[in-house]
Amino acid sequence: MTENAIRRNVEDIRRRIGAAAARAGRRADDVRLMAVTKTVDDQRIIAAIAAGVDIVGENYVQEAKRKIELMGRPREWHFIGHLQTNKAKYAVKLFDMIHSVDRTDVALELNRRAAKEERLIKILIEVNISGEATKRGIDATGAPGLTKEVSRLEHLSIQGLMTMAPWFDDPEAARPCFASLRSLRDRIADAGIPGVTMRELSMGMSGDFEIAVEEGATIVRVGRSLFGERPASSISHQP
Ligand SMILES: *Cc1c(COP(=O)(O)O)cnc(C)c1O
């Protein structure tokens, strides 16, 4: 895919985000576009950065390290993959935000490593809002408790929630998931836990980002609509 094609895709996705935001009485500026880069070669990532995506989203810590060394930091780099505790030490050096905190041991390790780096790391709590067994994330009933626990860790700053909706043929079918994540966010925000802002809702991917924006997404994570289909051998939804 050429640089021009990627630029057109970014414009098209922005336009669709803008229209979805307008339908919901929201401002397009309140939604940030993340380019999800798994399996995408460096040239296309560089083209997406040049085309003005807000955030680069990485599933793998080691790959991100290499790319950031190569491409620098003209945009924010966020981690969206499964975080193993033994990668926390690198993650706190590399990323502006970590979207996938779903258990205490990972939070504790991130906090310990962030303390060593003297950094305050922005994180999201990943919620398995659909309850599907194959999805990662803490279940909705456990999310307020985990948020409270993690909020006590001095080097982590909870900014909101993240989810992956199940894949549906009809994107409308994902709407209840997004609405549930938003109401869970509102409920946690209302609890007024010190140091917890709950500003961000990271939800919506290529197939359903417009619905997610209508339901309050502040970050949409888009791979295939931006870069084209991934190779068939790659795992599309559970990296
Ligand atoms: C791959 C991935 C996406 C993007 O999915 P697309 O369908 O390519 O837009 C979003 N979020 C996460 C966590 C992913 O792993």
Record the SSE blueprint.
Layout lengths: L2 H21 L8 E5 L5 H9 L4 E4 L2 H11 L4 E4 L8 H7 L2 E5 L2 H14 L3 E8 L9 E2 L3 H9 L4 E7 L12 H16 L9 E3 L6 H6 L4 E4 L1 H4 L12
Parallel strand pairs: 1-2, 1-9, 2-3, 3-4, 4-5, 5-6, 5-7, 7-8
Helix pairs in contact: 1-2, 4-5
Q: What does it look like?
A:
This protein has 239 residues and is α/β, with parallel strands linked by helices. The chain is 41% helix and 18% strand. It has nine helices and nine strands. Strands 1, 2, 3, 4, 5, 6, 7, 8 and 9 form a nine-stranded parallel sheet that branches. Strand 7, helix 7 and strand 8 form a beta-alpha-beta unit. Helix 1 (3-23) packs across helix 2 and helix 4 (88-94) packs across helix 5 (104-117). The longest helix is centred in the N-terminal third of the chain and has 21 residues, at 3-23. Bound molecules: pyridoxal-5'-phosphate (PLP). The site of pyridoxal-5'-phosphate has 14 residues, from strand 9 and helix 9.
Helix content: 40-55%
Our count of helices gives 9
Assembly state = single chain
CATH class of the domain at 57-217, please?
Answer: Alpha Beta
- Gross morphology: globular
Bound molecules: pyridoxal-5'-phosphate
What is the end-to-end distance?
23 Å
Instruction: Name the CATH homologous superfamily of the domain at 57-217.
Output: Alanine racemase
Low-pLDDT segments, ≥5 res:
none
What is the CATH topology classification name of the domain at 57-217?
TIM Barrel
The proportion of strand residues reads 15-25%
The strand count comes to 9
Q: Secondary-structure element order, as H and E?
A: HEHEHEHEHEEHEHEHEH
Provide the residue-averaged pLDDT.
95
Q: Radius of gyration over alpha carbons?
A: 17 Å
